[in-house]
Amino acid sequence: MNNYVHTLISFAFLGCAASAAFSQGSSQPTQRKSFEEIVAMPVVYRVPGMDEVHVRSNLKYTNVNDPNLLMDVYTPPGLARDDKRPAVLLIHGGAGSESKPKDWGVYRSWGRLIAASGMVGVTFTHRLGFPNPFLAQSASDVTAAIDYVRTNADSLNIDKDRICLASYSAGGPMLSMAMRDKPPYIRCLVAFYSFLDIQQSESHRKYETPEMVKAFSPIGYLAKDATKIAPMFIARAGLDEIPTMDDSIDRFVREAISKNAPITFANHPQGVHGFDNQNDDERSREIIQSAIAFMKFHLGVR
Q1: Run of H or E residues at 108
Q2: What is the Cα–Cα distance from 254 to 285, expressed in whole angstroms?
Q3: What is the value of pTM for the model shown?
Q4: Are residues 299 and 37 in contact, defined by beta-carbon separation less than 8 angstroms?
Q5: Which domains does the chain have, with CATH numbers?
Q6: Less Cβ around it within 10 Å: N or C end of the chain?
């Protein structure tokens, strides 16, 4: 495996854009960006009010002894003290907590976009890693983040019974918990260029037991009561460079349709991994806008 491909795979687990910028209509990179440049870039879609959003920064959401496991909460401007809004928790990919993904430009802009759209955006750093994914540790952190948001909902202007989980890249397996347990307060799920079946992922199979790989493959939870899974929006990058990424999405979508699961699917034919901040084109903006509309509909934001 050459160094560039290895870097692409690494960025996939980092949960952000994996590639260089691509010219529209071409699968050939026009330039190769550094990691710092990639994660600093905001999403390519904006709405009014993003700059006026209120941000509560660096909240300690877990008792785990890791100073990087912190949370930021983005709320719409001008909320009354007792005004409660549904929350969208953004689940990054496998960066390792030392990379502080919640501070990346892409997630900061997503937080502002969600808040300016009338919801509460929640970004948090967790322990999903690369090449060892540390699935159990990350799942514990994601659970702690959900519990923190629900326990402190009143002070955070959050309606604890209206929550959406949104995954990116290698964060997809974290959606398994909501698909398995089907808690009523999880009203919808969103997956942007996310692993939805890791049973064919070399890194996951190398570092995790077969039982863990199966347990954290969302596709497995379509086998029983698929119609009761929270409605799900799936965004696919047609030019995703990450081995088995699109394959995992394609297999999940086929299985979901066969089980009559409530999914909404959007494909970006020219999209690279991380198209939401890498492909500055109308299709990216259309998909992001559609995802926001999906969240608002299922979270009851009018």
Answers
A1: helix 105-116
A2: 25
A3: 0.92
A4: no
A5: 3-299 (3.40.50.1820)
A6: C
